[in-house]
Design brief:
mainly beta; Tachylectin-2, Chain A; 23 strands
Length: 341
């Protein structure tokens, strides 16, 4: 009898192990369409702040307007082996006084027990701005400030808290994200995206005031150089910045990661100074199945992970799904390249 029981338990263990699922590289959310995941560790759990692709996009929309997002859901994972739980809607478009449409890629940061949802949206005049909404819990609900951050523009905000307690806003995205329409932080309809061997557009950085509601300085370029110390040029499309900046720090080194946009690589550059200049380092992830690519990177339980999106569920570029994958660093601090497909 004891022998039979042992065999029974053993067989069930084998069955259990054989059915254990590895969720890496698989769609994490299937109930709604999600993209642009910003992931953070709060209270020992992973909270994910993605954008929310609409199920029924309005007919007739073209170009960047097909990404017609109207609210933000927050998700939580107790670990990297468990699918996330939807904690509900944390903020809606109609509750943002200054915004008109397109709640694109957000971020979230904690300071003094408050949670600051940082998000882009178009204002009433059709310009992208970056706003703040504040909540008492990681999942919200978040209450939007009555106006956007003064002097803000473009998209894809990343709010980076440094070791010294300073917070920096990093942002920017070309074309639909309007960054190419600004020179020296001033908009003009005559401004155009650089071409050829012109120096490429760079992401922006600004130190925030202690209230995280205002910039303490005018946005500056985060210059990305090639191996020879020269700024990346516009036609170097496999390396130069396009959108989705994400800043993190490891072993005293700042890693600026971003999307090359039209070529769809996720790449990185490094610096010993938060303001740069940054030196291009290489590819993190080759193109995925989707026109866009967007990500965030975090450390959890002494391992590093990247959250990103593709459109595996639908094959439609504006109906995406978020995923995660572990990433590895070499001894010299470089990031090992992973294949997207």
């Amino acid at each position: 009898m004891k022998e039979f029981l042992f065999i029974f338990i053993f067989l069930n263990t084998i069955i259990l192990i054989s059915h254990e699922e590895n969720i890496e590289r698989k769609p994490l959310v299937k109930e709604i369409y999600t993209a642009d995941p910003s992931a953070h560790v709060f209270d020992g759990k992973i909270y994910i702040y993605p954008s929310h692709d609409e199920t029924n996009t309005a007919p007739g929309l073209q170009g960047a307007d097909v990404y017609d997002m109207r609210d933000y859901h927050v998700f939580v994972m107790p670990d990297t082996e468990t699918y996330p739980t939807d904690l509900g809607c944390g903020l809606k478009l109609e509750d943002i006084p200054w915004a008109s449409k397109q709640l694109w890629a957000p971020d979230c940061v904690e300071k003094d027990g408050k949670y600051y949802l940082v998000f882009p949206a178009k204002d009433k005049q059709g310009f992208f701005r970056i706003g703040i909404a504040i909540g008492d819990k990681p999942e919200g609900p978040f209450t939007a400030e009555p106006n956007y951050i003064e002097g803000s523009y473009s998209i894809d905000p990343c709010m980076f808290p440094d070791d010294d307690g300073q917070y920096y806003l990093v942002f920017g995205g070309l074309q639909g994200g309007q960054l190419d329409q600004y020179v020296d932080n001033v908009w003009s309809a005559n401004n155009r995206e650089p071409g050829g061997n012109q120096v490429s557009k760079m992401p922006k950085i600004a130190l925030m005031k202690d209230n995280l509601l205002e910039m303490a300085e005018k946005p500056k370029d985060l210059v990305i150089n090639d191996a020879n110390g020269n700024p990346l040029v516009a036609n170097d499309q496999n390396k130069r910045f396009f959108e989705a900046p994400w800043l993190f720090k490891k072993d005293g080194i700042y890693y600026l990661t971003y999307s090359t946009g039209t070529t769809h690589y996720l790449v990185y550059a490094t610096s010993k100074n938060v303001y740069g200049p940054y030196k291009y380092g290489g590819v993190i992830l080759t193109p995925v199945k989707c026109w866009t690519t967007h990500h965030s990177i975090l450390e959890f339980n002494e391992k590093w992970y990247m959250f990103y999106h593709d459109c595996e569920l639908t094959g439609v570029d504006y109906k995406r799904n978020i995923k995660l994958t572990s990433i590895e660093f070499n001894e010299d601090g470089s990031i090992k390249t992973m294949e997207g497909q």
